Amino acid sequence: MTYEEIIKQLEVLGQASIKKTLMRHGIKEPLFGVKVEDLKKIFKVVKYNHSLSLQLYNSGIYDAMYLAGIIAEPEKMSINELQDWVEKANAPILCGSTVAAVTAESNFGMQLATKWIEANEEGIACCGWATLADIVSIKEDSELDIEFLKELLGKIPKIINSSPNRVRYNMNVFIIAIGSYVKPLNEFAKEIAAKIGKVEVDMGDTACKIPLATEYIEKVEKKNGIGKKKKTARC
Q: In tens digits, what is the pLDDT along the chain, a chain of 235 residues?
């Protein structure tokens, strides 16, 4: 399928009810309202395709941008392309999921994540913390800078309450990821989680709830899942 054919297909697959739900979750026009399962059906046809993913993301159409993340080839992404993606990400899902996952699987994950968490722009900072969370979920502990991650964890209680809305959410996600995936920092992550307690985030007109980091990590422990890595950051 060509870029033009995919855009036409997305328009056909769009549903008003899905579009309404997505908009409640902070997705902005233009979008068609395509189900993720339908996007994955398109992926089965086009497979992984670096150049096509760039075209789709640059369309500015939410459904196409989400699909771009599915078909992307992270190892082929340049640092400039990833920077372009994060700057164009105009929705929480794109920042915290699509761009973060692709960046985590790229050759520039840690480099960009540590830069992005310092950004003044809320979306970019969100993506930085989400990328860090994805990185620790897929990389072996031996590949991680444990002391650096511990230092970041230690800073969170001091800055989380004064951080922007969605940044607080992704900091919480980062704490959960460290506690769940990085064995050497499990106990310290639990200490930090207990210290910050419940994180208040305005999720808009949705039923989404913010997970309590202490409870989430405990659930992973009960399933003997601490330290068990994922194969990929992308679902």
A: 999 999 999 999 999 999 999 999 999 999 999 999 999 999 999 999 999 999 999 999 999 999 999 999 999 999 999 999 999 999 999 999 999 999 999 999 999 999 999 999 999 999 999 999 999 999 999 999 999 999 999 999 999 999 999 999 999 999 999 999 999 999 999 999 999 999 999 988 888 889 999 999 999 999 999 999 999 999 7
CA-closest candidate to residue 71, choices 87, 54, 91: 54
Q: What are the residue boundaries of the structural domains of the chain, listed by start? A: 109-235
Q: How far apart are CA 98 and CA 68, in angstroms?
A: 8
What separation in angstroms does the CA of 16 have from each of 2, 31, 35, 161, 172?
A: 25, 10, 11, 37, 32
Structure tokens belonging to residue 57: 């993301």
**pTM score > 0.90 for this model?**
yes
Enumerate residues 6+ apart whose C-beta is below 8 A from 156.
171, 174, 175, 192, 196
The token pair that represents 232 in the structure block? 């990929």
What residue type is assigned to position 110 of the chain? M
> Please, which residues have CB within 8 angstroms of residue 224's CB and are 6 or more apart in sequence?
none
